[in-house]
Design a protein that fits this description.
This protein is mainly beta. It has a domain of about 120 residues. The chain contains 3 helices and 19 strands. The strands form 4 sheets. Strands 2, 3, 4, 6, 7, 8, 11, 12, 16 and 19 form a 10-stranded antiparallel β-sheet that branches. A 5-stranded antiparallel β-sheet has the order 5-9-17-14-15, with no helix packed on it. The longest helix has 11 residues. The protein is globular and about 50 Å long. Its cofactor is L-ascorbate. Pfam families: 2OG-FeII_Oxy_3.
Length: about 240
């Protein structure tokens, strides 16, 4: 369970910056893609961290970055709100159920999650991806300090099913120097030394899934030293 009283950033509640135009953008086609049967979920830490390599092809990543560069990104303020971690990046946020549904179905994410051996790890019946889509760009000197991602309640789909988010989804669209996502497990017993950090290196087109909410690991997006780090963000949504 995430320790109380430390810096937290909500999985959706904390991303409150809205674009000037509330209309969803005309996203690039989700093509070309690797056939879903050629993809797999790899476990980094059981029940906590999973990765899917090549969920976006390098060509698709380039097309998305070219398109996303034209969006009205907003730079986060350097001074965080009380109780929030310091985050310095450029971002865009939009509610787009159609894009979330398309990303879930066409990328292979639905196939992989539904066929994953331990369904209980996701915290319930997975309905799809959070329609709250976020784009992050980190330039040299930008970072996301240590924090926890909170679960967010919502009503999902046309049926407005009571739902909540349980896992953060990050799709890395570029690589750069720095910018790794580092996780900090706690010691199992009081007085014991904490385990070494778990560092997930950036890979173009790779999806990182990590559990959030009460069981979220403390983590950070390390400072970018050279180049740009582009990330497409959503969350797994389960019925509650």
């Amino acid at each position: 369970m995430a320790p109380r009283g430390k810096q937290k950033v909500a999985s959706s509640k904390g991303d409150t910056v809205q674009p000037a135009n509330p209309q969803p953008p005309d996203w690039p086609p989700l093509a070309p893609l690797v056939p879903q049967e050629h993809l797999s979920i790899e476990t980094v830490v059981p029940g906590q961290i999973l990765v899917i390599r090549n969920i976006f092809t390098s060509t698709l990543c380039r097309n998305f970055v070219s398109f996303l560069s034209s969006l009205p990104l907003i730079t986060t303020p350097g001074k965080p709100k009380r109780g929030e971690a310091t985050r310095v990046n450029d971002r865009f946020q939009i509610d787009d159920p159609n894009f979330a549904k398309m990303l879930w179905a066409r990328s292979g994410m639905q196939y992989l999650v539904s066929s994953f051996g331990d369904q209980a790890v996701f915290g319930g019946t997975v309905l799809g991806l959070n329609p709250n889509i976020r784009i992050y760009r980190y330039r040299p000197g930008q970072f996301f300090d240590k924090h926890y991602d909170e679960s967010n309640k919502l009503h999902f789909g046309e049926e407005k099913l009571p739902a909540k988010t349980t896992w953060t989804l990050l799709i890395y669209l570029t690589t750069c120097e720095g910018g790794e996502t580092a996780f900090y497990p706690e010691a199992l017993k009081k007085g014991e030394r904490s385990p070494e950090p778990i560092v997930v290196e950036l890979e173009t087109g790779m999806a990182l899934l990590h559990k959030h909410g009460d069981d979220c690991l403390l983590h950070e997006g390390k400072e970018v030293r050279k180049g740009e780090k582009w990330v497409l963000r959503s969350d797994l949504v389960v019925q509650r």
